[in-house]
Design brief:
The complex is a heterodimer of chains A (432) and B (255). Chain A is built from 15 helices and 14 strands. Chain A has 432 residues and is α+β, with helices and mostly antiparallel strands. Chain A starts with a strand and ends with a strand. Chain B folds into two domains: 149 residues, Rossmann fold (3-Layer(aba) Sandwich); 88 residues, no CATH class. Chain B starts with 5 loop residues before the first strand and ends with a helix. Chain B is of the alpha/beta class and 255 residues long. The chains are: A alpha+beta (432), B alpha/beta (255).
């Protein structure tokens, strides 16, 4: 036993977005190696953005990810508007938040029910769940559809919306168009409250980690479509423009993704667990009551319980979408004219899976000179590996098969988006 | 169950948006799943059925030596191969590398470009194998995907629209945005999206790629008269379908 090698591996991790795998090598009961392999091929966005016109960045970077295009569009827009010194009207900002609520509803519903739930229920996918418990999959699909519908009404279509631009929107929807979505969103709110209760009945491994949680500070509201500062529970509090002075990206040989670390501090976590821990007080009464109703503490450090936090956030964005529609007034002008100015700035937004930061430099003709994009999964990758080390260390007695399944689940806790992070997964566990 | 046709869904270099389109068919998905066996779809399931498969849906473009090999194996083991989306049918946005030096690109993005295995070009699957059906679009249209799947399952011809986006604008009664002063790629772009952009007061940006025999020269001339610079024209034809011959050639006239 002392010299036995165990390899726990998954060559192609399923139910995540993009291509990656896992390798864990154990020798004599010690963890030798933990790797997330990212073989999603590089597409070189940051290179071909050079020479493009600044207003093209939202539509081009949307194509980094089909699951969170609004996150990319919004971060690019925030950056460009910051460079050009433009501040949009509150109505425009609120409409962006509504579009983004649609993306969170779609993405969280997809992940909770179709990507993460099969791990808890012991199915390979939602397809088999549909055979035994069709109501679960029907619920997921209807929730997803409502999120997609919000994106379609506000953004023109759900994947790669066409209506957003630097300065605002091509066309602002009328109030009646938005109000037509209220009955569906009321159903989504009721269903998301039920989702929180249902998720609380799942079994969670007894596993806690000590995290540095980081998220945007949106100045008094739960961070979604932007934020001027990037903060953590351990004292990080920086203007977003200083993001790259504090986050360093490293390139490991086994991954076509750069891994984000905090300088002199190491791994950190972005995403639902972080937003919830940092900004619990800013959640709506409904979302807080849902969390309290299942006894969820204000800080969750069991990463497997991210499904609960994601469900609470689902409640939050349904409440928020309804509020935004109620208070919406169609702006007189759908967009501001934005004149390019030479300069550089960072812009960020909270993708469903965590903080996404873009930095651009443009010249006075509006041509992009330099682009840097740091997706949430790249930032979480070192923390995912740390979770795997912690988990395998604690649960080494499990069979290879069970340990492999649980490690995959530990990765899916993060709703990783590998297409995004490439410039970012293959799961193997080797035991010697 | 065992008699149902098998479908495998493959990812190459892409954003996952076109395969997500299948999961986004919320109203049709359970119905479709009742008529097929999903043999391979890692975005949705860890279960796999070994080939051969009746139908393979292929998303993404060929950008690595491994991908160039894999598509040949998929062809050998598949009854029908359907390429879905701008990446699979044209090379996608990542085909912008075809106009540049990929080594320079790699060194801009990665501290250790030597760790990467990548090809100098991003190419559609039709450059590598025989493709039975192509669905254009970035992303593809849900309605087209559902129709194509039903067509394949019932052995009829799929209703892939031909003609320009202009046809869809007329059908929707959307006033022509170009007549109103906004340059639009609609006249040279394949229909299928439903002419969304003009209905939002925006010019078409060509995400469905060139239609059959597009008159790009004439459209570019009109854009110039409207004040578009050569740089604007170059970039307009060089986006998500940059490597499709008609758009590639037109962009080269402005480079």
């Amino acid at each position: 036993m002392a010299d036995e090698t165990r390899t726990i591996k998954t060559d192609y991790l399923a139910r995540v977005e993009g291509e990656g795998g896992m390798l864990i090598r154990l020798k004599g009961g010690e963890i030798e190696e933990v790797k997330l392999n990212i073989f999603e091929p590089p597409r070189f966005f940051e290179a071909f953005l050079r020479g493009r016109y600044f207003t093209e960045a939202p539509d081009i970077t949307a194509r980094i990810c089909g699951i969170c295009p609004v996150a990319y569009q919004t971060a690019a827009i925030n950056s460009m508007e910051s460079i050009c010194g433009v501040k949009v009207e509150p109505e425009i900002k609120e409409l962006r938040r509504l579009l983004y609520c649609g993306e969170w509803i779609e993405s969280h519903a997809l992940h909770i029910y179709m990507l993460h739930a099969p791990d808890f229920l012991g199915y390979p996918s939602a397809i088999e769940i549909a055979a035994d418990a069709p109501e679960i999959v029907e619920t997921a699909l209807r929730l997803k559809k409502i999120g997609n519908h919000v994106m379609t009404v506000v953004g023109g279509r759900e994947i790669h919306p066409i209506n957003v631009k630097v300065g605002g929107f091509y066309k602002a929807p009328g109030k009646a168009e938005l109000e037509a979505m209220v009955p569906d969103l009321e159903w989504a709110l009721e269903t998301s409250l039920e989702t929180v209760k249902w998720a609380s009945t799942l079994d969670f491994p007894d596993f806690e980690m000590d995290y540095e949680f980081a998220a945007l500070d949106a100045g008094g509201v739960y961070p979604i479509e932007g934020g001027e500062r990037f903060v953590s529970n351990r004292g990080l509090d920086i203007p977003i423009d200083e993001f790259y002075e504090h986050v360093v990206e490293e390139h490991a040989k086994y991954a076509n993704a750069l891994q984000g670390h905090l300088k002199e501090r190491g791994s950190y976590l972005v995403g639902p667990l972080a937003r919830y821990a940092l900004w619990y007080d800013l959640l709506s009464d409904e979302a807080k009551a849902a969390a309290e109703g299942i006894g969820l503490p204000k800080v969750v450090t069991n990463p497997f319980k991210s499904i609960l936090v994601r469900a609470v956030e689902l409640v939050e964005v349904c409440v928020e979408a309804l509020r935004l529609i109620r208070e919406y007034e169609q702006p007189a002008e759908a967009s501001l004219e934005v004149v390019p100015k030479a300069g550089a700035a960072c812009g960020a937004s909270e993708a469903p899976r965590g903080t996404l930061c873009h930095r651009y430099e443009i010249d006075d003709k509006g041509i992009i000179l330099d682009a840097t994009i740091t997706p949430p999964t790249a930032q979480n990758q070192p923390q995912i590996e740390a979770d795997l080390r912690g988990f395998v260390g604690q649960f080494m007695d499990l069979s290879n098969e069970e340990l492999t399944l649980r490690c995959e689940q530990a990765i899916r806790n993060y709703d990783p988006c590998i297409s995004c992070a490439t410039h970012f997964l293959n799961l193997e566990i080797e035991r010697t | 169950m065992a008699d149902l046709p098998t479908i495998a869904i493959w990812k190459f270099s892409s954003c996952d948006g076109c395969q997500l389109t299948l999961l986004d068919c919320e109203d049709e998905l359970l119905g479709i799943l009742g008529r097929v066996q999903i043999a391979y779809f890692p975005e949705a399931t860890r279960a796999e059925i070994e080939g051969p498969w009746d139908v393979s849906l292929v998303e993404g473009s060929v950008t690595t030596p491994e991908e160039a090999e894999r598509i040949k194996e998929i062809r050998e083991k598949s009854g029908l191969v359907v390429a879905i989306g701008a990446c699979a049918t044209a090379g996608g946005i990542q085909a912008l590398r075809n106009f540049a030096n990929v080594k320079e690109y790699a060194s801009i993005v990665y501290p250790h470009p030597e760790y990467l295995e990548t090809l100098a070009t991003s190419t559609p699957h039709s450059d590598h194998i025989k493709i039975d059906l192509e669905l254009q679009g970035c992303p593809i249209s849900k309605a087209q995907l559902v129709d194509a799947l039903l067509a394949v399952l019932s052995g009829r011809r799929p209703n892939v629209p031909t003609g320009a986006v202009c046809v869809e604008c007329k059908r929707r009664e959307t006033p022509c945005v170009q007549v109103l002063g906004t340059p639009c790629l609609g006249p040279v772009t394949q229909a299928g999206c439903g002419a969304i952009c003009p209905s939002y007061a925006r010019g078409c940006y060509g995400c469905f790629g060139p239609k059959e025999s597009p008159n790009t020269v004439s459209l570019a001339k009109r854009w110039s008269e409207m004040g578009a610079s050569e740089g604007t024209l170059l970039r307009a034809f060089r986006t998500f379908n940059a490597n499709k011959p008609a758009f590639r050639e037109e962009s080269a006239r402005h480079g």
